[in-house]
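pasting input
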Amino acid sequence: MRGRDTHPTPGWIAGLPALWLGVFFLVPFAIMLGVSVAHRVPGGFFEPGFELTSYARFFSAFFGEILLTSLALSAGAAVICVGLAFPFTVILSRMRRRSQTVVLVVLLSILSLSEVIIGFSLSTLLSRTAGVGNLLVWAGILSESRAFTPSLFALMTGMCYIALPYAVLVLYPPISRLDPELSEAARMMGAGPLRGFTTVTIPLLRGPILGALILVFVFTLGVYLLPQVLGQPQHWTLSVHITDQAVFQSNLPFAAAMAVLLLIVSLALVGLTLLLGGPKGDAT
Amino acid sequence: MTNLSLKGVTKRFGDFTAIDDVSLDISDGSFVCLLGPSGCGKTTLLRLMAGLEEPSAGRILVAGEDQTDVPSEKRDFGMVFQSLALFPHLSVAQNVAYPLTIRGRPRAEARARAEELLDLVRLDGVADRRIHQLSGGQRQRVAIARGLAINPKVFLLDEPLSALDANLREHMQVELRQLQQRLGVTTVVVTHDQKEALTMADLVIVMEKGRVQQIGAPMEVYRKPANVFVAGFIGTSALIPCRLTDARTVEIGGRVLKLHPQDQVNCAADRAAVLSVRPEDVRLQGDDADAALPARVVFVRDLGESVHYVLDLDGHEITALYHPADRPDVVAGDTVGVAFAPGSCTVLAA
């Protein structure tokens, strides 16, 4: 379109997202980085400076274990959540258009609930006196009602509950766009429904599945209320400890250092996942 | 012998009857075209043959064995879909070898067979390419090769050439027919293109509104249409409203036309009827000739290879088609006498 008397997109427009990213991500991150190397004043706040004390403190068996717990919990939640969201979305995409809309609206309404409401609702639902234990007793499965919280199961339920809408939102567009003739072609060529699913549908959706896994993983890394409400102390994630250090111990440099490390580790893991799960070369 | 039979097959989607009591026999090694306008049920019929749809009533047999309840994956049919449905995550060779891989054949054998098939459809040197690196025509050939990988009992194709441009399509029609003759595989092709059907098929099945209108060899369907729909859909026909006064006489706009003994009559006497005749069988004579119907030349379309005379016959527009060497010397506005080649007329119920 060169030479036409039109109004080309001005070059500075590309600067807007960059400015956005700078103001809302890079600047806060730089502040956090600055705080993480600041000098802590015990009983007080912190003074500007440069020392690696906070980072050094993190490299202990205690915090290492917490970091691993956080990563393992989020990875577990990602696998379970996407494992549930995938068949759910496949079934959803085969429903009538109208029913699809209703289900999606209900699903999206979960996003309007805060972590606090979800956490306390689940802790009531899984409690001994008011929870599903009574239903199981009524159904004859349990002889006596029991509490299912706090436990790893309760925590996973909560994490998967809040992340499920995101996983479905990532998976829904590619799954609903998938040409149904592809799986029919697989059937015509001798693949039963399960073989067709594993050899055609899943490989075709590898990108979106990976995307959903990463999204749920990163999203659940930030969860800090659910582990306290639904989990036992050994399930407390790094996010819980960051909050604890920042809010209750008034140790902002250490909280900032942990946040920086968490960010680095999770970015590294996301990068590794993309590297391993990216398109493979021809393997004929 | 693997012949394919449908017995009273009906398919309903809710209140809508897509296929209405279709029975047919397709003999071994024949090339059959399911021909009809869009929405006539031809694709549904193909999907019923494939087992991708379950019939609401009726049975489907292959070589005398009931296949109605056999799932698609166990029928050993080959199929080319309208979208081709090639797998983008696999290479060309892997696509072609997929039916063999699924059946657990060794990798080397599957690869060798894939190369043999690609050779058969004249695709060299693309085995390791990705599907998106191929042109439309090449994809077409890959889909055909993949459909033939297991030496299918029946080879089904759903509008396989519709995405290709006109020249390539005509070329592929001939090639597909030659390939089928070489392999002798029983083939069923869905198409809405009558030229495609006439080019390729041994047997044409004309469908409309979920029903079979006519089954016959291409020239039979062309020359002796069973009803007005077939006459209008296959090729161009002059369809002239008339009245069959007795078994061998029709009345057109008050004029009496004696039918030739070889003309077809597919309707009861003394009823409103339609006289169907092909443009190449409409002959112009002097307006004083006996047994000629008077008509006025409305327009002369000279296309070089042929000349079309658009005529007004008693208020109905019909066309006469001439080879340039035989063209009569008339111009628009002239009044001429119209006669029909002996045995070329078909009288159909209106």
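fyi Residues 280-284 of chain A have pLDDT under 50 and may be disordered.
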